[in-house]
């Protein structure tokens, strides 16, 4: 076999393996696989470190076209996905206000959610600046606030769970925001900054950083 034939055979075999790998993926749906997706240090590796790897892959992969994965660009996409999901849920909330039989308790919860989601949108816009300047400490604080705001909204439905018709959309904000926080922590750990000396920060469910022993 000459070199070209070998190369063709290799390419076919590789493409087939890629196909089988994709067909077996947990999502079960076929999608075009970016070559860098499966490489060590690729998107799959990055997403593996997040709380919701499948959501991470599915929300980032269709928007990522570069031959090399830049984690901070992947983060920018996940941040935008969180922003989009929040805006989408805002539309649902605004629609619910129009219900004819709007109960006082539902109205109160919607007011809380509308305010909290407004804060989420503000925080995300500020996070974009922090990411641009690679200020991970700031970005982490902003996304911690995003998670808190999302929780304040869902907490406001305690006792009237059956009225929480956008619980699924709300949970997706939590999951996307959690993934952003995970990627930020990963970037922060790989790029040590001149942080101010150990300040006590409130624990977060995504806080998987092992601090220095003092
Ligand atoms: C966010 O929404 C905009 C406008 O609909 C869209 O162009 C963009 O691709 C979305 N981004 C992500 C990451 O989903």
TrEMBL record:
Signal sequence interval, chain numbering: 1-23
Family: Belongs to the PMEI family.
Domain Pectinesterase inhibitor intervals: 39-183
Protein's UniProt keywords contain Disulfide bond: yes
Top-level lineage group: Eukaryota
Organism: Trifolium subterraneum
GO-annotated molecular function: enzyme inhibitor activity
Protein's name in the database: Pectinesterase inhibitor domain-containing protein
Pfam family, one: PMEI
Region (Disordered) location: 190-214
Organism placement in taxonomy: Eukaryota, Viridiplantae, Streptophyta, Embryophyta, Tracheophyta
Gene3D superfamilies attached to this UniProt entry: Invertase/pectin methylesterase inhibitor family protein
Annotated CDD domains: PMEI-like_2 (cd15800)
Keyword line: Disulfide bond, Signal
InterPro entries assigned to the protein according to its UniProt record, in alphabetical order: Invertase/methylesterase_inhib (IPR035513), PCW_Enzyme_Inhibitor (IPR052421), Pectinesterase_inhib_dom (IPR006501)
SMART domains: PMEI
